[in-house]
């Protein structure tokens, strides 16, 4: 198996208004279409929510949300089954534009953009929940193409914070294997720029395989049902459901 190697991605070091970054974020939507990400997320989220005590997650947090467009496409597909969701989009760059928020409003979802480093949230220095209630739970936390940015140790602390503050968690990440690595080298075929081409290869090297995320999920965080699996041609998913709230 290819060893996991985490390296800084080019997009992460570019300013939000850098033309190469703007183009690469548009490319990301094309990458999601070729990865089938929306369908993978929809399947994962709806099947988890079906067994959840609330059935419809009301309070949802996406970490490393980027411009929020991927979750918007999911919200549009979930309407009208998931009305009135309160969504917080966390990213360390301010990337969500007004029209995206307006489109969320059209499906009845309220959006709050939170610009901070996710590890400020892990450290407790950023309180994302209204009323400053530290024990309040997110119904659902989602991460997409995000966890692979981190080495195992910080990732374990991020997963612990997630387990302490949510009832459901779903992540869709790059799968790390030879087929996916070959695919990442050919991504230029879909017309993406040099930043996206470079980052795609780095993402696969930093991606996941087998039960690597399960191994990092906290054991002391209460009773959870966890599953980790390959999805589509290029994705690796992890889902966790808190059992006592079902
Ligand atoms: C590959 S993009 C994925 C965006 C979106 N989830 C998607 O799938 O389209 C990763 C995102 O994570 C954000 N990011 C990276 N490190 C972060 C950190 N430590 N805290 C918060 N956001 C971070 C970047 O700004 C970027 O928008």
TrEMBL record:
Gene3D superfamilies referenced in this protein's UniProt entry, alphabetically: Vaccinia Virus protein VP39
SUPFAM superfamilies in the record: S-adenosyl-L-methionine-dependent methyltransferases
InterPro entries, per the entry: SAM-dependent_MTases_sf
Protein name: Methyltransferase domain-containing protein
